[in-house]
Amino acid sequence: MFQLLEKYIKDRASVEPAMLDYICSHFSLVKTRRNQLLLQYGDTCQHYYFVNKGAIRLFTLNKEGQEASRYFAFEGQFGTALPSFIEQKPALEYMQTIAPSQLLQISRKDFFLLVDTIPAFAAIYRQIIETGFITAQKRIYGFQGFDALEKLQWALQQQPDFLARVSNKMAASYLGISPSTLSRLKARL
Fold first, then answer.
1. Phi then psi for 134, rounded to 5 degrees?
2. Could you tell me which residue ranges the Cyclic nucleotide-binding domain spans (predicted)?
């Protein structure tokens, strides 16, 4: 159950086997169905998730009810509604699994206990935050000057199996283009 998480940790930090077991003991397995909400808009996020199998999506809805996907976490990645998780304020987004998923869940209390008491886990948390920040910055600044094809190419460079893992509607909302434009672009690839 913890093999993928253990590999993730060992790839990023030097951790003794007993410490690795201790870290993993703070996570519990959660099995979800497709499109199951992990967090409602307006609720305060209390958990961080590591994706063993499946995928998590963070998204918002505009006034017309149209979705805008902000982030996807696939196998071997962490995902949460980070602003709500850190600040303990109501989330301004939804978090859902987009496929039947097996997630390793850790409570906010336990997560920050590990960050505060285990330097290797604190370093991993810093890497997660830094990678997320850099990716978000590249997406924001890159998308400002990118045309639709360049946006798609950027997404495929970041996550090569992106189009195979998410629906056209979700991918288009992430890229900020229409589903019909995405379909035309996919035909050109």
1. -65, -45
2. 14-115
